[in-house]
Write a structure and sequence with these properties.
The chain is α+β, with helices and mostly antiparallel strands and 456 residues long. The chain is built from ten helices and 29 strands. The chain has three domains: 216 residues, FAD/NAD(P)-binding domain, CATH 3.50.50; 82 residues, Alpha-Beta Plaits, CATH 3.30.70.2450; 86 residues, Glutaredoxin, CATH 3.40.30. The chain starts with a strand and ends with a helix.
């Protein structure tokens, strides 16, 4: 087997889809008996929607969700204020998705899982990893049922308490973002409209939020509890919490569908690669849920890693290409941790900073800028949408290939368009499979040598 992916959350499923469409022999294994049942990561940022467009699930994701409602604040049973959750960003040709899209995490995972199966991939549920050993040729992973799997590479997408990360001895340093315990739950209730995200703050710093989950009859309950208390995750406990913090009665909470307690923490793994084992998602970085950065950063990890594993396994690229995964994604994750912590503490507003459209790899060793005085888009930047000769760029980018803008002669494994949109500025641009400009020059001279270095 080429790649064993441990964990069937958004990270593992996204990576599985990307690898399978590249012809990589990949298997996802999951300790649980089924997909995650809760709403936890419900916010999909615009950059993630672009990734899902490429992976063929954007239409299903859009159909399953909705934009975020306004936040409505209550005090003593009265409405005291309403505001938009996010700074508004205008859409343009280069940026078709500008607002976060709300989809319950369980629904996002259902859509990704269905796409993986459609492409011929698979998830083995009920397979708990207990240990692994690696050598120069591959990794042997052992399971609680006594079985074992041998693969060329293993990707740890098994969450913040990652067994795989611990098995390879990678540490994770972090800090407490908030000393108070938090509770999140999916509930059904009566007495509130579904047009607003209802927030009930108290003078002592505790608070309850009730957000209607798009495409469901549920509300997601989020609560900041008093320091020193323990979350009561039972139906009775949540009824008591809602009655104490809102104008609703305990009986208005009619059903508890899922619940979890946590303490917000920001943490970053010391390394994202240990030989043939790579870390992605929560196994590599842990975020406060504020600002919706955790799940989205995790999807970006998978999207960055997928094409690199494919190039090494089937494109003739050197194994050293995988070092660029840690180089690019660890720095990005560190920045996103600072951002999500800032949002949690009220220092950063949700908006341009949180949609992840401005992230770049300009400092990466894979980024080559050959123009003397570049204007507009630079090597390392996200490649915007646009139109060339009647072809939409995101349609041209869709798939596992590279795309060359500004050179009519196609190269093996590369789709070529005769020009770049005016918004890019002058030059020739080579777009990586993950939608970033890998190389830019005044002409296409040097493109073939660059591609040879990355296994194309």
């Amino acid at each position: 087997m080429d790649v064993l992916i441990v964990g069937a959350g958004p990270t593992g499923l996204t990576l599985g889809i990307d690898l399978v469409r590249r012809g990589v022999d990949a298997l996802v294994v999951e300790r649980a008996e089924g997909l995650f049942p809760g709403s936890r990561g419900k916010g999909l940022q615009p950059r993630t929607l672009e990734v899902f467009d490429d992976l063929g699930v954007a239409d299903a994701i859009r159909a399953a969700g909705r934009p975020y409602p306004n936040r409505l604040t209550w005090k003593d049973g009265e409405r005291v204020g309403e505001q938009a959750m996010f700074e508004r960003i205008e859409a343009d040709e280069g940026t078709p998705y500008t607002e976060p899209w709300m989809v319950a995490q369980w629904r996002t995972q259902e859509i990704l899982y269905a796409r993986l199966l459609e492409l011929g991939g698979a998830v083995d549920f009920g397979r708990e990893v207990t240990d692994l050993e690696q050598d120069a040729e591959g990794v042997t992973v052992r399971f609680a049922d006594g079985g074992a799997v041998r693969s060329a590479y293993v990707v740890a997408a098994d969450g913040g308490r990652s067994v795989v990360r611990r098995a390879v001895g990678v540490g994770m340093a972090g800090e407490t973002v908030d000393p108070a315990p938090f509770l999140v739950a999916d509930v059904r209730l009566t007495g509130l409209d579904r047009d607003s995200w209802h927030v009930f703050p108290k003078d002592d710093g505790t608070a309850v939020g009730l957000c209607p989950l798009a495409g469901t009859d549920d509300f997601q309950l989020q609560a900041r509890l008093a320091e020193g208390t323990e979350p009561d995750l039972t139906l009775d406990g949540i009824r008591e919490l809602v009655a104490a913090c809102t104008h609703l009665d305990a009986g208005d909470v009619t059903e508890l569908r899922w619940s979890s307690g946590f303490r917000p923490r920001a943490a970053l793994a010391d390394r994202f690669r240990a030989g043939r084992v790579l870390l992605a998602g929560d196994a590599a970085h842990l975020h406060s849920p504020a600002g919706g950065q955790g799940l989205n950063t995790s999807v970006q990890d998978a999207y960055n890693l997928g094409w690199k594993l494919g190039a090494v396994l089937h494109g003739g690229a050197p194994q050293a290409l995988l070092d660029s995964y840690e180089e690019e994604r660890r720095a990005n994750a560190a920045a996103m941790l600072d951002l999500s912590t800032g949002v949690h503490r009220g220092e950063v507003r949700r908006g341009r900073a949180t949609v992840q459209l401005g992230l770049d790899y300009r400092e990466s060793s894979l980024t080559v800028e050959r123009r003397q005085n570049p204007t507009g888009i630079r090597a390392g930047d996200r490649a915007p949408d646009g139109t060339v000769s009647g072809i939409r760029l995101f349609d041209a980018f869709r798939g596992p290939h590279w795309t060359l803008l500004g050179a009519p002669t196609p190269l093996t494994g590369v789709r070529a368009l005769p020009a770049a949109p005016q918004s890019y500025g002058p030059g020739t641009f080579l777009i990586r499979p993950d939608g970033y400009v890998g190389w830019a020059g005044d002409s296409s001279d040097g493109v073939e040598a660059y591609l040879a270095g990355v296994g194309v």
